[in-house]
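User: Hey, quick favor. My workstation is busy. Could you predict this chain's structure for me?
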Amino acid sequence: MQFKNRLILTLAVLCGVFAAKAQDDDIILVKKFAESAFQKGDYEFALQNYLILYKQDQENIDLRYRIGICYTETNIDKAKAVEHLEYVASFNNYPIRTKFFLGKAYMYNYRFTEAIEAFYDYKMVGVDENDLFEATRMIEMCEYTKALINVPVNATFTLLDTTINSEVDDICPVVTPDNNLLYFSSNRHFIKEYDANVYAGRYSERKKGVWQPSVQIPISSYDDENVVGSSTDGNRVLVYANGDYATHDIKMYTRKGAKFAKALASDLPTDMNTDDIEMGACLTPDGNTIYFASNRPGGRGGLDLYVSHRGLDGRWGPSENMGTTINTEYDENYPSLSPDGSRLYFASKGHDCIGGYDIFSTSFDEKNGNWFKPINIGFPLNTPLDNTKITFAADGTAYIAAKRKEGVGNLDIYRIDFGDENIYPAIYAGNVFVGESENDAMLHNETMPKAYAMVYDTYGNIVAQLDVDEGMFYVPLYPGDYSLEVKFEGRQSGTKGKIHMLSDNITEEILLKPFK
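Assistant: No problem, here it is.
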């Protein structure tokens, strides 16, 4: 009997040893996966594995540092980057680049004053020239954003339904002027041999005012292929392709009904595609001018915009850099035109930018023979995240891809309706009191922790972010319903209330409980 019990005990111990070893092996494998993906810049896969490790070791500074970077560099949930990087920065021996990524995390979460401070902190200790250059640039962006975000564009976002959008990325909408044909790109296309999804072009036709279920363009190969432009009738499509069978090239396809065929080589400038990167592109309404992005030698820096014209003989002329009014030392990409061809829209990381790519507009000055200074099309069309492509229908509606709270996937496609330009927002003023109760509350002042007010729309998208100055803040709002939150720097909770802005610029009274 004793022998039998000992045998059972021994087997149990052995089983426990084997289980523990198997678990250790799994952890080692997860670490390898995480580190390999992190070093390759595959932050989504790295994050999946780091979060497994985090469940077992939540006080590991190096682990939380990497998790913070992964959240910062992906669109999964940038808000979560802040808590991890703030935790790391609370230790004296934090990694040098912590404040750099914390600055980016603050910036992406509309905490611009804190972002500027974090970037300045990094510049005092940083050694990487690229990071220092980027930190300086982001300080400029934050300062500009603090002004631009408080002069919002009167624009309404409408999420296109699941006939267009999916649970993955849906990007680069290209609409025809009649507003009845929409091209876009999506990474829902699964390649079995790669065991991965790639981007492929899709299109949808609108019938009786309703967008029909989108169809994948039957040209997709094993490459990532993104629709970047089309002719006004939608029968010629420009596609950016990159992968095993194309390397950063622009292709053109012709469409007849549901059939697509590769266009003739003469349909594009002979010098357009090079060994370098060619990406965004668009055609003028007459089809005789093409604008495209390239990082070929001789530009101002990064991707520049180029133009080529087709002569009366049908031949394309040499591609020319569009010059310093358009191009900067940063990237310019994704050109598109208004339906009549009079305005050029493009994405840029330069000019007066509020973060990543912003969309700008300009037109050609026929009198002086040059382009007018590009203008940022404004918040909330542009945000601290990348905003790359906008196209317009003749009725004034526009289409854009964005990361918003009401979306069904990561990036989704939205229709934009613009309000009357002659209607200006009303100014809502708020006072911030601090105290245990309404009776002993005092107006917030400079001796207290910094406070800021956040205004959200009904979906939870940020409408405005405002520093509280001597206990007060002012926010311009168009008619609608909003929620308001006042927070103190370094605290997770704050005071909340609601705002109902009426069409005659009168606000209903709101009550905010004093913040403890």
